[in-house]
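Page 47, continued from p. 46.
Same chain as before, 255 aa.
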Amino acid sequence: MTLEILTIPCLSDNYAYAINDSDSGETAVIDVPDAAPILRAISFKGWGLYQIQLTHHHDDHIAGVELLHQAIEAPIIGARADMDRLPPLELAVSEGDTFALGTEPVHVYDVSGHTKGHVAYYYPGAEALFTGDSLMVMGCGRLFEGDAQMMWASLSKLMELPAQTRIYSGHEYTAANAKFAMSIEPENRALIERTRQISELRARGEPTMGATLELELATNPFLRAARPEVKSALGMEGAPDWQVFAEIRRRKDNF
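Result:
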């Protein structure tokens, strides 16, 4: 693998990511909550910035773009469907598009639900998926613009990716997400163990990003809405999967 991923804490609980292709020397930054920590991080690594990739238009993901772009005039990439709410784009992308970072392909997924026009970026060479506020590690984003059926369709696409794909989402919400997950499946042994591991990571001040999709499928309640044991726990046997997802999202909103 020639790709290195750097997790960059920003604001109070946001993450930006820098991903470097060592073969070409090119680096992309994914989401820009704040320019200063990103500039410090890539300067420390000695990386040159070649792309700015945006997942969605919320201010806590794009507020630092103007300053970053002033410092380093890298092309900005984002969703064609959301381009009227994003900074000016050099490349507007849609579901199914592929572009490159150096020699590495980057695949675009429309993951609308949290917002309409939200995209995720999949790097098969790094087995990495950058999801913004769609699929969260141990959770999913609130449905501010889309509905439950839309978000379930988005998550269902991501669930088809290889099991070893690692998830990099936009916020450090994992401990709170795990606490909620325990309210849905308190006897899920994989979830019990994962909750313990998450507590240990956060006690050391370490990020929880980079969990595998396989682990998410075993423990993230929002990806488990189709599971018979989850439907039974919610008293929703026989309900469509998206309706079970909607009930889980409703419970999380009120947790």
